[in-house]
Amino acid sequence: MAVQNLRFYPDDALNQTCSEVEDFASDAFFDLVEDLEDSLQHYGGVGIAANQIGEGERVFVLDESTLKTNYVDEEDYQATQEIPLRVFVNPEIVASEGSSKFDEGCLSMPGVTFKVPRATYVKVKALDASGEEFEYEATGYHAAAIQHELDHLDGKMHFMRSEGVSRRMAMKRYRQFRKSYARLQKLERT
Fold it and tell me: Average of pLDDT values for 34-53?
């Protein structure tokens, strides 16, 4: 379909819990999946959730080509390059283990990263774009990326999981970024 405008924090769409997809045959659903894929490739992130482009369905897309470190061998990695974008519909974590803090950025909060505690292993049950169920396992940063996108679908931003000085400093940098961005937009309009 087309690249969609990103929603930036504190946009209300980012605070909404997304609804489960029920109709896998509708044009609106196919358009949403294409919009997510096109937008992710355009903006260059690791993943993108539907509410980041203002839609309210439980769908996210992950760019597996950005996650080479998760693959044990080159053959597994090359398999992801043929179809690097994976669509997760109505995803849920069914198992998780471990804990670590990961530096996370977000397309909806550009210019800052936060240290976010995440499970180091997750097993996800989801549907693909045709409605077929699959299970997906990930470790390390790959697992963190999946948890990040699932948080979006639940109306949570990554900084909500960070704590203390790290959170305060990153929020300060983000507010400075937003002010600079607003000034730049104002100059472009004149």
Answer: 95
